[in-house]
Amino acid sequence: MHDRIRLGLNVDHVATVRNARGGHAPDPVRAAQLALKSGVDGITAHLREDRRHILDKDVKALKEVCDTFGKPLNFEMAVTDEMVGLALKMKPHAACLVPERRQERTTEGGLDVVGQIDMVGAAVAKFNAAGIRSSLFIATDPAQIEVAAKVRAPVVEFHTGALCDAFREQEDVIFHNELNRLQAAVQQAHELGIEVHAGHGIDYDTVPFIARIPHVRELNIGHFLIGEAIFVGLESALRRMRELIDLHHKGVVE
């Protein structure tokens, strides 16, 4: 059995609630502190171009908190000159390149690495040279995985939204097709020497299926855990997710 799957908490939606009133609470930085004290393995934050939730000051403070705990900050960002420049200046542990459209509610689908190979490749090269771990948030598409390897991305994070939506909607055929695609994608990436992460839409019901897949090294979960924390508290929500990941990853042959 490989070492346990890492759990990263995305704190974007704490900032969404804060910004709805335009005040200071709830504070995503405080959420990160509580999560790190509770044992999560890292913090994820997406600084969108429109600054709809996480703000520049949040990223700076989150980086300081993560450094204090000796844990990584995963900086999600669009592939733009502004964001690449900010990442190079801030030097987070990881920079995860994601697709971004102003009209979307949340990140829909994976990054088109095939169609943006020059732009993505240039960003990855800059990050690799700066000691920032590049990650590409992509769909479970063999062509995207091949190009991720071509541009020398050390990590891919697979978008699990379609899989999780199909499970909740009880669309069994779609769910099993998506699960098979995810399993094949994880294996392909692993064989190409790419570390595999997964995220988007994961909850207590869907995490067992993903945790059982060999070679998945990290799960980044946000919206569900922040929502669950309203009812049971953040520490309890994180502890339950950690238990489920460990339970279903136990015995997996890597």
TrEMBL record:
GO MF annotations in UniProt: pyridoxine 5'-phosphate synthase activity
- InterPro entries from the UniProt entry: Aldolase_TIM (IPR013785), PyrdxlP_synth_PdxJ (IPR004569), Pyridoxine-5'_phos_synth (IPR036130)
Active site annotation, chain numbering:
46, 76, 200
Of the GO CC terms on this record, one is: cytosol
**One Pfam family this sequence matches:** PdxJ
Question: Is the ATP-binding keyword given for this protein?
Answer: no
Biological or metabolic pathway of the protein: Cofactor biosynthesis; pyridoxine 5'-phosphate biosynthesis; pyridoxine 5'-phosphate from D-erythrose 4-phosphate: step 5/5
Q: Its domain of life?
A: Bacteria
Signal peptide from the UniProt entry:
none
Membrane-crossing segments per the record:
none
Q: What class of enzyme is it?
A: transferase
One GO biological process term is: pyridoxine biosynthetic process
Just give the chief location class: cytoplasm
Family to which this protein belongs: Belongs to the PNP synthase family.
* Assembly information from the UniProt record: Homooctamer; tetramer of dimers.
Enumerate the NCBIfam families for this protein.
pdxJ, PRK05265.1-2, PRK05265.1-3, PRK05265.1-5
Tell me which HAMAP family the record gives: PdxJ (MF_00279)
This chain's protein is named Pyridoxine 5'-phosphate synthase
Query: Which organism is the protein's source?
Result: Asticcacaulis taihuensis
